[in-house]
Specification:
The protein is an all-alpha fold. The protein has helices at about 10-15, 35-60, 65-95, 105-110, 120-145, 150-175. Helix content is about 70%, strand content about 0%. The longest helix has 28 residues, at about 35-60. Keywords: Iron, Iron storage, Metal-binding.
């Protein structure tokens, strides 16, 4: 078991008063803040692109099995937007600015925006995007390690939901036969 030396209360109090304008970013924050902000903004772009793609697919889904798929697309679109809000909130906490600018959104996103010509293609494109997000977020979690546990936990929560989304898409694809 590693022995962690706890800082005495007086020192904690004194440090908290220094650079108070930095808000949540204290002296104990050991991550490279600029890199973390870039990764958060890339993830924000990814979530926004996924929201838009799922929303389009919700409106465009047609065919016999489309209503079940459309319901999943809409649910996932809403969840991707919730992820975007959590990421934007964290960016602000770290003293950054969330980049919602639609210009360059797909360039900043890890996932692509592919419309899909039919229900099967839509499901495949959503599954591919989820798989990209899963690998990307897993790497970000490993990169963050113990340097930024709050951001890491946010990514862990989002990762778990992206894995559920991938499973949902794989099930829909399987259901098409």
């Amino acid at each position: 078991m590693s022995h962690v030396q706890l800082t005495d209360v007086q020192t904690l109090r004194e440090r908290a008063r220094q650079h108070v304008e930095n808000g949540a970013v204290t002296e104990g924050y050991t991550a490279d803040r600029e890199t973390v902000l870039r990764l958060l903004n890339e993830a924000l772009a990814t979530e926004l692109v996924c929201n838009l793609r799922y929303r389009r697919h919700y409106h465009m889904a047609s065919g016999l099995k489309a209503s079940v798929a459309a319901d999943e697309f809409l649910e996932h679109a809403e969840q991707e937007l919730e992820h975007a809000d959590r990421l934007a909130e964290r960016i602000v906490q770290l003293g950054g600015a969330p980049d919602f600018n639609p210009e360059g959104l797909t360039r900043r996103s890890h996932a692509q925006y592919v419309e899909g010509a039919n229900l099967r293609e839509m499901i495949v494109e959503n599954l591919v995007a989820e798989r990209i997000a899963i690998d990307s977020y897993r790497e970000i979690i490993q990169y963050l390690g113990e340097h930024d546990p709050t951001t890491r936990r946010i990514f862990e929560d989002i990762l778990a939901q992206e894995e559920e989304h991938a499973d949902d898409m794989a099930s829909l694809l399987d259901g098409l036969g």
